[in-house]
Amino acid sequence: MRFKEYVSKDLQYRVSRAKKDWKFEVCSLVTAARFRSCMTQKDIAAMMKTKQSSIARFENGKQMPSIDFLVRLASAIGTELVLPKFKFMVDRDEIAQKRWSGRR
Known about the structure:
The protein is mainly α. The chain has five helices and no strands. The protein has a single domain (3-101), classed as lambda repressor-like DNA-binding domains (434 Repressor (Amino-terminal Domain), Orthogonal Bundle), CATH 1.10.260.40. Helix 2 crosses helix 3 (52-59). 9% of the residues are buried.
C-alpha cells in the first residue's frame, strides 16, 4: 500500500470514528439525563408527549436527537439545556478568562 493510500484510509477511519463517538456521546447524554431523573423511558415519553420507542431510538443511537428534542427532554426532567459551542469559541473564552483572572 502506498503512503498516500494509507494516510487517506487512516484519515477516513479517524473522521468516521470521531463522528460515531460524537453521536454516541450525545445519545449517552439522553440516557444519563433519564437515569439522573430516576424515570423510565415510558415516564419521560409521557411527559414529552411522545412514544417510548422514540426515547429508546435516541438512547441506543439509532436516531440523533434534535436540539428541540433535547430542550423538551430538559424541560421534562426539570432542568435546562446548555447549548454547546464551537471549538474556537471555547478557546476564545479560555483566553479571555485567563486575561481577566491575571488582572486581579
